[in-house]
Design goal:
By secondary structure, the protein is mostly helical. Helix content is 85%, strand content 0%. The radius of gyration is 13 Å and the shape is elongated.
Amino acid sequence: MIYTILESIRYTLTLLFGIFVSVLFLDIRINKKNVICVFLFFYIDLVLTRYFLFY
């Protein structure tokens, strides 16, 4: 149980860090629209990954 929680936290933080590093390398401006798009991509990826890995 605790291993699953820690693994989920690690995956989430790694995914979020990777997305934001990619955004910085692509030199995308940080404004409200772009941040919403990045978080939307993050949540879609997170939900799909959790669905296919844990079910």
